[in-house]
Amino acid sequence: METKNKKEEELTLETLFTDLDEVVEKMESGDTTLEESFQLYQKGISMLKQCNEKIDLIEKQVLILEENGDLHEF
Questions:
Q1: Which of 23, 35, 50, 72 could staple 44 via S-S, CB 3.0–4.6 A?
Q2: Geometric angle at alpha carbon 17, from 9 and 49, rounded to 5°
Q3: Using the 8-state DSSP alphabet, how is residue 70 labeled?
Q4: pLDDT 10s digit of each residue in the chain, 74 long?
Q5: What pTM was computed for the model?
């Protein structure tokens, strides 16, 4: 399980978006069975959750530059 979490942490938003695009393209192609479509859907939802988590983390780390030049997290 630890290996899976490490792999998920290493994925960038760009990689996740690219992979998510590929999942959507496969589903839209119509060349998948119902079972394959369901698996792709589950994979896509999982990647979407990872994207949301990464975006939330990035938003929390955004630094605000104050007038005096000090950096503060919000």
A1: 23
A2: 60
A3: -
A4: 444 544 545 789 999 999 999 999 999 998 999 999 999 999 999 999 999 999 888 777 765 555 556 666 55
A5: 0.67
